[in-house]
Amino acid sequence: MKLIVFIVIACVASIAAEEYHDYDHYDDHEASPEEVREPADHHEEEGDFGPPEEDEDMSQEESIHRKGFGKPYHSWGDNHADNEKYFEHLFGKKPKDIQSPAYSYKSGTGANIIPTEAKEITAKQSLRDDPEVTTKSYTPRSGDDNNYGYRPDSEYPPEAWVEKWPECGGTRQSPINLALPACEKDYGPPLQSVFFKKHPHTTTIRNLGHTVQYSFSYIGTPPILTGGFLDAEYLFAQLHFHFGSSDYSGSEHSLNSVTYPMEMHLVFYNAIYNDTQEASQHADGLLVLGLFFQVLEKTPNQRFALYLSDVPTDGTEIRIENPRSHRLFDFVGSMDFHYATYEGSLTTPPCSEAVTWILSTRPREISRQDLDTFRALQGYEGPMMDNFRPIQSINGRSCAYH
Hints:
There is one protein chain. The chain is of the alpha+beta class. The protein contains seven helices and 18 strands. Strands 1, 3, 4, 5, 6, 7, 8, 10, 11, 12, 13, 14, 15 and 18 form a 14-stranded mixed beta sheet that branches. It has a two-stranded parallel ribbon with strand order 2-9. The termini are far apart.
């Protein structure tokens, strides 16, 4: 009998010790260990840039550790209502129901607005159950607000942009060459990618004449980039690409004077503003995450490139309901990388000097087939390729390497 009592006491003591250890890990946060589930250990192998698997965990560096709370956002489940309560708990405020236009055309409609006629579905159904449905359309260009170009014979070539858009001649222009040895070293906390594994309800891919753009509508809060050196939350708006006709040029920025055949831009806006248009009027309004791509013959095709052939010419558009593999994670992969930052501008007119740039210093890989699909796109002036602005003067600006 004494032996049994001793065993019971030992078990209770062991459990108490484990709970004490867990509470110590989560510091003074009021949440209990039962409310937090650590994900399975997984770390992306260096150089593994292929299409991520559907249930692949992002690396531990993407966890959020505010107030010592260690639950990664990407481990949240399909119940977005509970997820947003958790967001409110972490950030101390209720997330807005975002309806942000990813681009502004004369129609005044926003690509991130969920249509009112959309049927009522649960979050889980929107992610997994309903079939993928595509709708193609064509909207011809209207107005002359986008009549800039990249060729010497363009109506407004890059050196003449300033004639119509004066801010293009400012002192905080992008892109620039980032000489990494000259950047200040900053080894602070990692960036926090929030909802990067959240599936969109709808994807819209549009040939804008100067680039091909992906925008997404979400049920609830869109993906967010915060943490690291940032002192605000930035909400995702859209992503697009700049690419060249050769394997040695196409990116807008250069790293140590090296350019790449493609650069992807993910555009975010400061959550204190209503949309990208309002944010572009403020120095802290926009954030752009830039990723370089290098072509490697044996790289698997990216799943996000599947629909490019459906938007071959200026004004063509495809809308995909219940898209598969269109999470931001499918475009970006792991956020565990070094990056450089500086204060700059939009790289297209009106060249608003409102952008905080984050540029990954680890190039991703793209297959030859995918890159050729991009290069086959026709734009406002013919072939869309070589849609990159020349390098701009640094004008005494500093950069930081994280």
